[in-house]
Amino acid sequence: MLCSILVVFLMIKCNSDDDSGASKPQIVDTGTISDFGSINVLSYSSSQIIEVKGTNLSNSIIIDVSTNFEVSLNDSDFGDQIEIAASDASAGNVSVYVRFSPLENSVGAVSGTLTMESSGATTKTIPLSGRGVSIDPVITSNITNLYFEDVNIEQYSEVQSILVNGDHIESDVTATTSSTDFEVSLDNVTFLSSVTILADNANEDTTIYVRFSPSATGDVAETLTLSSAESEDTEVNLYGNGLALTHNYVTFDQQGLANGGGYTRFLSQSFDLHTDLSNIEQIKMFVQIDCPTTGCDDWDRFANVKVKDQATDTWFELGRYVTPYWTGTQQLERGLEFDVTDFKSLLTGTIELRIFIENWTSKADLITVEFDYIEGTPDYPYYAVSEVLGYHGSSINAVPYGVEHDADLDKQITVPANAESTHLRTVISGWGHAGPNDSDGRPCAEWCYRTHDIKINGANTFVHSLEPLGCASNPVSDQSPGNWTQDRAGWCPGMAVPTRVDLFDSSMAGSTFNFEYDYEDWENDMSNGEAYYATSTYVIVKSNTEITAATIVD
Q1: Architecture of domain 382-554
Q2: Model confidence, pTM
């Protein structure tokens, strides 16, 4: 009795396994479809055949082809879709005929797909291709737009290619660019503004090589025209962007700055920079901060780069920044960027630079400073710069805020008679957590938002608003656990301190005027130490004739 029950149990179990193992629907195709070759438009090719069948199908197989191709079950009645009944597909292989039938405008390389679908089955796709041949004379290219990477003016891009083919062309085909910024070649050696494909080769695939050599900066959009005597012109759009030629000079290179550990907090050194400024439109300075194996300094520190004015033996502040917490500026490809064109009269030939970080630990930041001299047409060929306010020694070697002090913020400025443009350049950053706090809880001068005025002859003329910059969006974002996301007043850790440029409405040529930097009124109650504003201001004069620096009188 036990054996009978066991046999019945095993039979039931086996039958259950068989029922659950039923196969899913499948579409099976055999054979391949090759490229159909060249076929006249409004005509069709010979058919190619694939065999199709199905297993465990509950619905028909639907076969679709894309535009320019046709499909049939009898090699006679063609369309863009056929249907194979599930019973026919399950009975065995069904022949499917496919042909290429390019439409009138489908001249040149044509691609498409054949798709087989049935409910529950995996969709099958077969690629289709051919080449439509015009029944009229025509020139075709494999692309209509050609894009080049940015290229320095008077330099050459990487070579790109276009595949050109003619149909029913009996004369030479010329390929001509619409400007000298683009050149073409048939051998990838000799490049000209125009090349000729001989008539004997006009109806075959011909590779035309194209390169970009911009003559000026900015975007360039031109055309490559393909023409012959008996066809309409075919055009390929050419695009590129010309960049100004740049001369790069690396000065300090991975120079460590720290307070101890074999380092110092500042370093001065001489360097040889660009000597001919006649065609230099802009000078940019880049400061990259790297970290030694011991790691960067933990804090946000006041830092700057200075150049010596040989005429006055004074250090002028080229750019100021605040170091990031714990890290460098490696997230930026070239570090912090400063436009220092205003100082071009000092940044030529042999110069002396000084770098400084107010670091009080032995953990160093490694500083690299480089300059880009960018060619172009200067706004004026001659510049001169004078220092008006030079309170940029450190965060606290600066102007005390909210207390009586002896900093001289009133100057008299005389502009040379041949000046054609005059502007002021100011960099300002606050330091300290002094009280009383503002109504929003912000102490001064690191955190408190303020508006300062520059008075010219006693009148408020220029305004400087020390407002939030959006520190949390700083791309130098790996500063944890530092307090880097909170907005300071006009600066952020790991960013360049903004340069504020104030252009006079007139050239101010030959004039003498009074200057005063006026900080917004606030009184320090000395409840939490002192507050400071590190402030540098320069007056820059420009001219089409040689010019001397403005005169500054205390």
Answers
A1: Sandwich (2.60)
A2: 0.70
